[in-house]
Amino acid sequence: MIRLSKLADYGTVAMSYMALKPEELHTAPEIAAAIRLAVPTVSKLLKIMGRKGLLVSQRGSKGGYRLAHRPDRITVAQVVEAVDGPFTVTECTEASCRCSLEPDCPIQRNWRRINRQLRDVLDGVTVADLARRGSGVRAAAPGSPATEAAL
Question: At a CB cut-off of 8 Å and minimum separation 6, what does 50 contact?
Answer without folding.
Answer: 56, 57, 65
